[in-house]
Design a protein that fits this description.
With 319 residues, the chain is an alpha+beta fold. It is 33% helix and 28% strand. The chain has 3 helices and 15 strands. The strands form 3 sheets. Strands 12-11-15-1-10-14-13 form a 7-stranded antiparallel sheet, with no helix packed on it. Strand 11 and strand 12 form a beta hairpin. Helix 2 packs antiparallel against helix 3. The longest helix is centred in the middle third of the chain and has 41 residues.
């Protein structure tokens, strides 16, 4: 009798358990509370845009005009450098060996000039002696002509030797220029923001996806704000602007317009997804603020609000 009711009871229990599981799994996941409240605009009518912090000089990607092995790295991240200060050295052993050859070639060319000068003096002396003979019976016309031609030949040889000296000097200067190009120097006064090369690694010349070094003038920071092309007509250069630090809206700074890049460009995605397509085009405005106003870093995003006329005003604001 007990076995008769066991299977139906188990079936009903399994059904109830399955129903309980389905009901619980369909409950909406509660939304987590924001760690920090989002920033809000201090203006009645405004343009909102994402801003990214960059140095006053923009990020300067340091490259090398010549490929080679990095011999010595002089700087590290955070170092402040002056314009013309070396950043790193490439292996220059083969160039220095070539320099020694060019120096020897120049020395030989100068020695040849000395020889040709002496030969010219000797030839000129013999020619002068022949020209000084008043009695033409004492020297044949053929001999006189030979001495004249020998003087011309010696003069031409001296000119050729001098030209070879100039050629050797040019070759030496070319090698010295190549040697100087193996020392990568700072183009401006700035701070080293990133170092992506190490001694012993091969530094590739040309445009690189990852720069060898990144340098920037950090005396003043800029915020590059992307203004949607649909709001570009509402933007005015004399409008007030405020930037809020992402993650803490209590940190804010009043911005001063530095300049506007009047060329509307496709918006860059900051997600890092290489397959993402961004069809929006933006006008980029750069605002400045003092570095000590906010605890920000280069490359950090900020929420920027720019005061603007109401969108119902078809007159817009002059650019």
């Amino acid at each position: 009798m007990q076995i008769k009711y066991t299977l139906p009871i188990l079936a009903v229990a399994g059904f109830l358990f399955a129903a309980y599981t389905v009901v619980n799994s369909n409950k909406p996941i509660p939304v987590a509370a924001a760690v920090a409240p989002p920033s809000s605009a201090p203006f009645k009518s405004f343009i909102a845009g994402a801003g990214i912090v960059e140095p006053k000089s923009r990020n300067i990607s340091i490259g090398t005009p010549l490929p080679g092995i990095v011999k010595t790295l002089v700087v590290k991240v955070g170092d402040k450098v002056k314009a013309g200060a070396p950043l790193f050295y490439l292996d220059d052993r083969d160039t220095r060996a070539e320099l020694a050859v060019k120096l020897a070639d120049l020395a030989k060319a100068k020695a040849d000039v000395g020889i040709e000068k002496a030969s010219l003096v000797d030839t000129k002396t013999l020619s002068n002696l022949a020209e000084a003979i008043t009695d033409r019976r004492a020297i044949s016309s053929e001999e006189l002509l030979k001495r004249r031609n020998a003087l011309l030949i010696s003069t031409a040889k001296l000119d050729s030797a001098k030209a070879l000296v100039q050629q050797a000097e040019a070759a030496l200067a070319d090698t010295q220029t190549t040697l100087a190009r193996l020392v990568i120097e700072a183009p401006i006064d700035g701070e080293v923001l990133q170092v992506n090369i190490r001694p012993g690694e091969f530094a590739q010349a040309g445009a690189l996806t990852t720069p060898l070094l990144v340098l920037g003038n950090m005396d003043q920071l800029h915020v590059r704000v992307d203004i949607d092309e649909n709001d570009a007509w509402r933007f005015a250069k004399n409008s007030m602007a405020v930037a809020f630090l992402r993650g803490n809206r209590n940190f804010k700074a009043d911005l001063t317009l530095a300049y506007v890049e009047p060329f509307v460009v496709p918006k860059k995605s900051l997600t890092g997804d290489s397959t993402e397509r961004v069809d929006t085009r933006v006008l980029q405005a750069l605002y400045s603020f003092e570095r000590n106003q906010l605890p920000v870093y280069v490359g950090q995003q900020m929420d920027v609000f720019i005061e603007a006329k109401d969108s119902s005003d078809n007159g817009g604001a002059p650019l």
